## 1
Amino acid sequence: MPRDSRTPLIQKIAKQAHITFKGWKPSANGDNKLFAEQQGELVSLVTTVRAADLKIAPRKSNSSTGAAELQSPPVTYMHICETEVFSMGVFLLRSGASIPLHDHPGMNGMLKVLYGKVSVRCLDKLENSLSVGSAPSQPEPPLALYQTSSLRRSVLRSVVELSETSGPCLLTPLRDNLHQIDTVEGPAAFLDILAPPYNPDDGRDCHYYKVLQTVSQVGPEGKSNEEQQGEEKEKQEETWLLEIPQPEDFWCGGEPYPGPAVSF
């Protein structure tokens, strides 16, 4: 017991992540009682982590709009560890920054806010049964013919605000697999676990998406019907996504991780 109490929390989290996702297969997700128990243990550990455990000091809002700030990345990443089983690191977002809507093909994920507050919008792609006449009518702005192959049907699952006192936000290959992350009222940071890690060679590349709006969804004042009728109704409705290149106003820099080292 004394030795375990000296083990850094992030080391315990890494060990449990390895145990949880080693040998994991998509077909077993949700049907495997052992996996559910191991994931529950991982959630319990991640729920308790705070910025201080990783020796990360919360950033302050910077009101400066100078050239240096405009040229610095809106998001930076601290790499903690990566194996064939999972990757783990910390994303730090400047005040007003956003990580655009993106997917995690065939991956599980766990997001735990360390400081600040973020809004997380989660969606899922539906079976893509796009055919002649099934594309969204009168998208705004209109799509070019070649773009129709990049359309995806989707459904908005949830929109939640998370802070350091919130539990982790989970994603699976089939549930909440796409998300957009926006800062709320200042800078924020979150611990990010992905299992398995992104790997384009294994079909796990990151794709970005844009939510389409049709002319019928836009009211006389430029507000969508969903906005006018309330967010709860919006969550129940399907929408169309357009796969796009990485947005030009988003890029991610890197910075050293100052916390306890993780080893296996």
## 2
Amino acid sequence: MMRMRPSGSDDGSSRGSAEEAAAGAREVGGEWEMRPGGMLVQRRGWDPGAPPPEMRLRISCGAARFEVSVCSLATFRELKKILTAETGLQPAEQRLFYKGKERGDGEFLDVCGVKNRSKVVLTEDPTSLERRYVEMRKNARIQSAQRAVSAVSMEVDKLADQVTTIEKSITERNKVAEIQITTLIELLMRQAVKLDSIHTEGDASSQKNLQAKRVQKCVETLDLLKTRNGRLKPAVVTTKWETFDPPTATTHWEYFD
């Protein structure tokens, strides 16, 4: 197969070359045809009015092997678009090799000699592979942070329930042991330290800030309850019982006629 491309930058000379190529194509008895852009290729054997035939290509991508159908007049760019649906790789992330040579997006399959059942090797662009690896590590960090924040959230839920119980008891003027309040404050501060040590990104950051505010609110509530609890008088419990003398029994009976 023969190709002829315009070689000069001058428009006139380019048009002249294209016209000469077209004239040459006519001189050889119609065995050649002109492609858009002045490329001269051998004429196909099918009816020009009929749609171009499709061919099946064998694709090798790492350990994966599969086949795709593509128009015989397609470019490697169009083949990449088809492969996107099979591999999930965008065209810019793909590199295609045929007969050991990387093919450019603008090259035509048939011009490069690709035929039905030909083998094309697909690899991922190294730059794209590195970006994917970085993205995977970033997602792993985000998921790890989300799990850590979720674990702290569960602990804060339990401690917040205890704060509510103590608040209810003090509101009913029932004095609570001070050690309960101070211990609960210490446990909440431990959760605050855990939150502060978690490195978060994206949505995990908002969840972390929300839990930090919850912990702060619980600690402030306990400080107020501690003051109120100190003003309450403890309930006095006595073990002395009041005794009563039994009534005196009498043996005198009153008689009635």
## 3
Amino acid sequence: MADFPEKGRKRRKEARVGNEENMEKIMHREVEKQRRQEMASLYASLRSLLPLEFIQGRRSTSDQLNEAVNYINHLQRNIKDMSSKRDDLMLLSGQSFESRNEQSRNDNSNHVVIRPCLVGVEIVFSVLQTPLSSVLHVLSEYGLCVIGCISSNVNGRLIHTLQAEVNDLALVDFADLKVYLLRLP
């Protein structure tokens, strides 16, 4: 009869150890479940920030992460392009980040930057008094077809950004065009 109380204690101890192991498993499952829910929420948040063209048809998380990286790279390229354009505009308006003195701001001469772009050529033209129609007339004489124009006023100076189609870049003398545009009244 002495064995019975000892067996009962042993069973209670085994049950306690079993309950502790079960509790650890349950806790581990709960922690893992919360982690998965948080990751799903973060992926959904990331997906909501991406434009549709970057996630269209992409279902797997790894595809979405890859597209997020592509989108970030796309944004970085845009930032570099816009910084370059901003710097050009600052130069055209007679200002620079390093020196913004009054003499360069009151410069009465025209400024021209011509560079290739996807559709042909982009011309950034900074003027004080030259009408845009004069610039457009010169461009048509050079065989350029203007397809877009954005104009801004910076410190009383008009800055026109024109995009023009060019059939053959080799046929247009851009150095001559720049000189001609700089001489406009």
## 4
Amino acid sequence: MNPYYLHCSCRPTSFFRPFFANGAFRGVSNVVLQEMVPGTFFTIPFDPNYKYSEEPLKCLDHIKNMSECPMEQERRKFQSQPYVRPVSAIASPTAPMPTDGSPWRRSCQPNTFIKLNWRPDGSSPGHNIITFADIRPGGFHMTPFDADYAHSIAPLVCAIHHEDMGQCPMEVERRINQGILPSDIEMSLRAPSLDRSAPLSRSCEPNMFMKHNGLSLIIKSVKREAIPKGTVMTLPFDADYKTYENPLPCVKHLGNIDACPLEKERKRYAAQKKKVAQA
């Protein structure tokens, strides 16, 4: 996809996600933020330093009247005020590094962003790291969360609010969008699971699944709608569930495990195996 034909918007339909491995840039993919029907334009977000632009923004959704674009309104307001070079907030020293291999922590108040370089054929040979706020001594480079952060099943980890994520406005928005609260996550952790390495419960009718994104495993919702508050988050059983020696801990059938169709298959398989062994 040639980025020169992609427009920016205050309501983007997609965004570019850089991939890292061991702290090194490996490539980029274009991720859609909504269902793309025929005739829909692919648009990407403005760079995080859009307020510093001396030129008016070109928002595809407000191309006929840019004064209606909320980000252009913010830019004009910022440009009309005396310039004061921003100083970034201090990140929590205990904030962990991202699990996607990125060498920079994420934050709701980023001081740095990744500017991708493009060739005329649309390929990306690399990236630049642009800082738009002074980093105090002892501070960290902090990049923005991905544009689809509100749809993340996993909790965000903000470098500034790591010790109390309830104070991070983007994590609060994510929780509201997902219809879940920390108590719901604790509820799922207390439910029976196969082993300690798989803290999420299992079910014959799971509402989540794991997907490999090329670098690591991510958890995605099976359904398009948000998971209601109070719902136990469940994953499918492993493909070899029939070989388990103990009854399956299916959350949906905890009160009557014999009603679980997968448990019935496991028992039937165990009976056949025993019959063959005795023959």
